[in-house]
Every structure is written in C-alpha cells, then in structure tokens.
Amino acid sequence: MRLAFIMSELGSGLRRNLTMVISVILVTFVSLTFVGTAGLLQMQIGQLKGFWYDKVQVTIYLCNDVPANSNCISGPVTDDQKKSIEGMLESAAVKPYIENWAFESQAEALGHFQEQFANSPMVDSVEAANLPSSFRIKLTDPEKYQIINETFSATPGVDSVVDQRKVLEKLFSWMNIATYVAIAVAALMTICAALLIATTIKLSAQSRTREIEIMRLVGASRTVIQLPFVLEGVIAATIGALLASGAVWSIVQFFMGGYLASANSGTPFISTMDAFKIYPVLVLLGIVLAGVSSAVSLRKNLKV
Questions:
Q1: pTM for the whole thing?
Q2: Which residues form the FtsX extracellular domain (predicted)?
C-alpha cells in the first residue's frame, strides 16, 4: 500500500513539474558531460604517456632497412655495432649518467606499437621491419641528455637519439591545462545542477502543501511524505547522467577514435572500452547529487 502510494505521488509530481524535471535533466546532462570529458582527458594523457613516457627518458634508435642519415648508409645495424653500443653504455664515461637501460628488438617494438595504437587505423599496416630496434635509457639526471646525444648520435649503427620527455612535455602541459579548465567548468555546472534540483524539489513540495497536510493528519511518516520528492530529483538526474554517458561514448567513438585518430594516425587514443570506466561514476554522481540536494531542500523547506 505504501509503495503504491509513493509511486502514485511520484508519477503525479513528475507530471505536474515536467518543465522543471526537463531542466534538471538538461543541466545534469551538461554538468556531467564536462565531468566525463575531464575524465577522458586524464585517461588520454595516461594513454599517451604509456610505456615509453613513464619508463624511458632517452631512446637510441638503431638503423633499419630505411636509412635516415649518413650513419645508416651502410644498411641496418649489425650485431658488432650493437655490441659496440652496449659496450659504450657500460663504459666508465657513460655509465654514471645512466640509471638503467634495455634493448628493444623490432618484434618487441611492434608489440608495444600495437598496444599503444590499438585504436589507430594504421595499426594493421605496420610490420616489425618498419620499426627500428632501440636502446631505451633512463638517466640518473634528465638534464644530462645532451651528453648521451653527443656520445651516440654519430656512432655507426645509430639512426637518432631522442629525448622523449622533451618532445612530449609541452603537449602534456597543454592537455593538463585543458583538464583543469574542464574540471572547473564541471564543478561550476555541478553546483548549478544541485541548486536547480533543490529549487525544483522545493517548488514541487510547496505546490502540494494541501496534500502534505492531509498525509500528516492520517499519520504518514516523514519518509513516506518526503520519498516521492527525493525520487523525482533522483530520476531526473539519473536520466541526465545516462545522457552524459552517451555523450562521452560519442566523443570517444566518433571524435577521438574517428576524426582525431584518422587525422593523427601516429597518436594513440583511448577506446570506447576504456571509457566504460567513466559511465558508472557519472550515474552514481548524478544519483548522489540529486539525493543530497533533494534531502537538504526538503529538510529546510518541508517541516514534517
């Protein structure tokens, strides 16, 4: 009986306040879309960093079948050249600047490439022979990169010496700024959503003052009286959160995985499977936001 009454009151409230309910849905949708976008940006930064950013500071690329400079005119790096480079890495002149190093074969480079660029359209067209083998080096002091560059750049068998962190530092800096902006806008929109939900529930309760008085007289409990109002906000916010989840999925599927991946084939982008981690967070945030806002509003404006 109580459940039937609560559902009846809920349906009545949704019909009477349809315009305000739609407003709550829209503002929740917009605010949580910004929250989801901020989450996507952070996931994308992590994807870009990946294996080579966090673990490697300097990469010595070795010559392969496609010569890129005068060091590679004689062809791909030979075993003797590779051993010579290993000896230089372990030499007394260079070793103090190196924390650790590892050799990556062409087959291993292909495996890492396929892992990093799983969402790129070019992943199936690249073979191991297209990628150079390399020495991945972590320096004790990143500022000493120039010493490694001067030592190895002219060494036979070496194609190039690249400081990966220097190359990506500005990109990640701008992406972090974009994330902070998205978080700030998301926080502002979330506050707006909370205020709108609270106002909607307050007006809904005030429009049914007479019904609430009757429920008090017949002995209805505080929970039975307040629950329909809380559920109104929760349902509207949940719909908004689901729409925001759909918007986040669309951003990943069509913008990041479609347009950006096609225009930047050399850049790894997160997939829709990665984005699935965000959807439950958005829905839960929407429910909590509506529940807390509604409860606070009723406590201040509906004396039971």
A1: 0.59
A2: 56-161
